[in-house]
Amino acid sequence: MNNDRTRQPEENKSGKKEYAFVQKIKTRKLRRKMKIKLLIVAVLVVIALFLLVTVMVNISRDSKDKYSKKVFDNLKYKNTTILAKRGDITDRTGTVLAYSQKVYNLILDPNSYWQEKTDREANIDLLVNTLGLDRQELLDIFNSYQNENCAYKRIVRYLTYDQVTDYKAAKEADSNKYTASWLEEEYIRTYPYNSMLASVLGYATESTGVIGIENYYNSYLTGTNGREYGYVGEDSDIETTIKPAINGDTVVLTINNNIQRIVENKIKEFNEAYGSKHTSVMIMDPNNGQVLSMAQYPTFDLNNPSDLSAYYTQEELSQMDNDQTVDALYDVWNNFCVSTIYEPGSVFKAFTIASGIEEGILDGTEEYYCDGHEVVMGTKISCAHPEGHGLLTVSQALEESCNDALMQMAASIGKDIFYDYVSRFNFGAKTGVDLPAEEYGLVIRKDLVTDIDLATNSFGQNLNVTMVQEMAAFCSLINGGNYYQPHLVKEIKSAGGEVLVENDSVLVRKTVSEETSQTLRGYLKNVVDYGTGGYLKIAGYSVGGKTGAAEKQPRDKQHYVTSFIGFMPVEDPQVVFYVVLDEAQVEDFDTSRAAQELARDIMIDLIPYLEIYPVDESYEINVGGLPTQPQPETTVEYVTDENGETVTDAEGNPETVEPSTPEEITETTEAAAETAETEGTVENTETTEAETVADGALETSGEDVTEQGQQ
Prior knowledge:
By secondary structure, the protein is an alpha+beta fold. The chain has 27 helices and 23 strands. A hairpin with a 6-residue loop joins β22 and β23. α6 (120-131) runs antiparallel to α8 (161-173), α16 (349-358) runs parallel beside α18 and α16 (349-358) crosses α19 (415-424).
């Protein structure tokens, strides 16, 4: 009982109850010696903490990068980009026209170089002996960063694999020794043929395509970078993850490299001999819309696209401001075939005639009298022959390129039908060719058209087209009436060779019937055989086509766009070719003679590649020979009496006029040749066509034709 009472809590002075053992503890006091020990321990702990903080601050300030690197080295952490390779561009035969080449950039690590344990001399020797760098220059670079925090200094770019082989071998043999430098991998775009096909291919930077195919098909050509990274897992093991790079796809063009090379060489020869503001050539397969060649002058080096030294002196370049330089670059980079509009001139006459024949308004038997001009709405619009061509059939009007006859035809066809066919042939609209920056062209709205517009448009004046528009429309005119969308890419393959996209021929619409197409092929053959296209005669081969020349604005009779569009063989067209000369520096600058001669030179060299066979195998191509001149028709003249009756001899045979002497025949032939050479007076008044719409050259009581034509 007593023990139980002693365990009961007792009240203290404050009135609170406490157990006895608590009271006993409270009554104890620390001895002096223990207090001193506790004080010493506390002081030591404070001093240790102070020293630790001081050391950590010093480490953070002076050796942060060093210890960070050690930490990452110990953890073996890795985070590396695996570069994807941009896809190749090839021609239709597999010839590589653009590819990406792996190169190496040399990077210096001054922080590592200045570490105490680094063998600096060995690192310098490595760079000098394997890469041929200058020792003193290397020392100067490292010394300049001695007291700076720099771990990345790129000093050499675009080293090839062969150049870095010895360096890489030494690094792999002792990576811990050579820590002051390393190689950074990169891809650069390379064009093995330099300027060939420049306006079509375009060029690409390290990250994207800028112009041309490189830009239009950038999403296919650009690959996807991969990544390799590692980290320490929960079990303290290094875990590495690799996401592989996906290389870009291969773009296969419809272009034939050999055809392109021949065309570009001929363009170069022409401009070296004569010169022009622009010279452009297109060659297409009319049966599927594939572009076999697209070339132009001026051009540029794809491996150095910003170099303008071929066209400007250093003094001129130094005087250019930024805007002028950009304009000059874009003038060279511009693809004339798809991005420049111009007045086509008399090549357009074939479409006017086709619309009339297709609608049954013309059947080819009509005759038109050319007296040298036509008066429309009080405006006198002249023909190339001010004295007139006389009476012409439809075919002869095309052969002689008579404006007067074409204006009469257009009047009978009418505005509605004429402009319906302008639209059907896709003028004034994009063709959809797979190149960037395609222009629409310029066609007058039907509700704004006047009779003067109809008259001048009928022979290709006061409307604007692009080369690719003209080519696509002309192909449909001679291939049976099938309008195919022009294209330059045949297919797209993966890096492994699998066909991802196949560009089949896209038939957009039917323009004319097979019967109309056949009729036009015959008319266009007559242009070459008997008319203004005589310079395109190639012995043994059937060639058809149309000449063109248009005076540029302002109409000053000095600046012309001349052209020739043709096809062969006439019976079964396999190829269409188109030559356009913008301000050719030739003697007959206002005629299409130069365009015809350039087209003929090109086709003579291309016939073997195109596998076009002669219609008459007894002939051989007159390679390098003079062009066949247009020849006068041979006629037999009979002797008549005063009453107009034919005089007969004693046997009753009609008497004929004595044939001309050889000298007279020569004179006649030379006169015919002069007629063809001065095509501006025979061909289509592209010279006079221009005059008819030039300010001051119109005899008019109405509004100015040029102003109306530009609405």
